[in-house]
Amino acid sequence: MNTQARWLVDIHGFRLSETVIVSWLIIAGLAIASYLLTRNLKKVPESKVQVFLEYAVLKLYNLVETTMGKELVERIPNIVPYIGSLFLFFLCSNLVPLIGLRSPTVDLDTTLALSTITVILIYAVSIRFNGGACFKDMIEPTPILLPINLVGEIARPISLSFRPFGNIMGGTLIMMLFYKLMAFISELIPGVKIPFAQFLIPVPLHLYFDIFAGTIQAFIFIMLTMVFISNAVDISLLKKREAKKLAKSK
Fold it and tell me: Cis ω on the peptide bond leading into residue 97 (within 30° of 0)?
């Protein structure tokens, strides 16, 4: 297992790293799976696949509405597909080491890019519903706190990106060291096989670091995304402003 990104394509200076290629493969796989699973949907479910898909989508909507609030979700209709797509990409990125591929989330560029998209979305939602007032929080309760508030805003994408990167990288390094230890033992004692070390130990480690930790990190990322977006909009104040506008128009 190698934690260093490799250049798999290098044509006259045009380079594509392993991280980019694996990310494209994941995106292509998700797109193909989405098409195949949804091409024959019926108004009344007739297959177990459609029943499962509708159940999963319903659970996703319930999760987003519970976290962000139903009223805010109704005002941002595309937020649920975004959260679902983000979770699936993140989850698949964390699970591909099980089939021998290098996880894109081991590369800080990947998690930083996803965090940047989320932060841009947060500001876009805040500006859309709060207007210029969203920047007023930077100088509250006193303008003296502006530098501290700016540091907090800068720290948000950094914390979002380093959390999954650090956890996935840590699991990858542990597995790499384990397999190197097994190789060292095999060289030290040639011809001797250790079934316990070769099977019973790696399986629980992969279950924890690849499946459990990978799923948890994907879930935490989308939860933080939803919390940050919901905190950027005060629904009660938004309703008051809309009520005032409606009263003035009448």
Answer: no
- Average pLDDT for 198-207: 70
Chain centroid to Cα 190, Å, comes to 43
Residue partners of 194: CB distance under 8 A and separation at least 6 = 182, 185
Segment 185-189 mean pLDDT:
70
In whole angstroms, how far apart are CA 138 and each of 133, 135, 144?
A: 10, 6, 10
CB 101 within 8 A of CB 129: no
- Number of neighbouring beta carbons within 10 Å of residue 25: 14
> What local confidence, expressed as pLDDT, does residue 40 receive?
82
Q: Which residues pair with 16 in a beta bridge?
A: 9
Nearest to 5 by CA among 21, 15, 18: 18
Residues 110 and 26 sit within 8 Å (Cβ to Cβ): no
* Stated pTM of the model: 0.80
Cα 200 to the center of its chain, rounded Å: 30
pLDDT at 2 over 60: no
